Amino acid sequence: HVQLVESGGGSVQAGGSLRLSCAVSGYNYNYMAWFRQAPGKEREGVAVIYTGGGTTHYADSVKGRFTISRDNAKNTLYLQMSSLKTEDTAVYYCATGSSPYNYWGQGTQVTVS
After folding, report:
1. I need a labelling partner for 45 at 20 to 30 A (CA). Which of 22, 32, 63, 72 fits?
2. What percent of the chain has pLDDT above 70?
3. Within 13 Å, how many C-alpha atoms sit on residue 35's CB side?
C-alpha cells in the first residue's frame, strides 16, 4: 500500500522561500512529481523527477525558482521553492505511480501574500 504524506506548507511573503516534503512509503516508483491547484483553477504539474537517474522537468512558470529533489535514503521527495510569487498560492500535492500517477498525497497549502 503506497502512502504519500506532504508537509512544509504555510504562509510566506512574496519573494520568500518554502520547502515542501513528501514522505513516501510502500513502494518506490521511477517517477515522482509535484502538482498544484489554485482556487478556481485546474490542477497543474509543477515538477517531475526520474528517481533512477535524477532527471528533472519543470513547468515554465516555476523554472529557475523551484527545485525538485529526492532523498532515496529517507524515501522523501522535496520541492524547494524560492522567489515565491502570489500566483504560486495553491494546494500542493505530491504524486507517484505507474499509470502515470495513481497515488497522491493529501495536499499542503501554500499561501504567498
Report:
1. 72
2. 100
3. 19
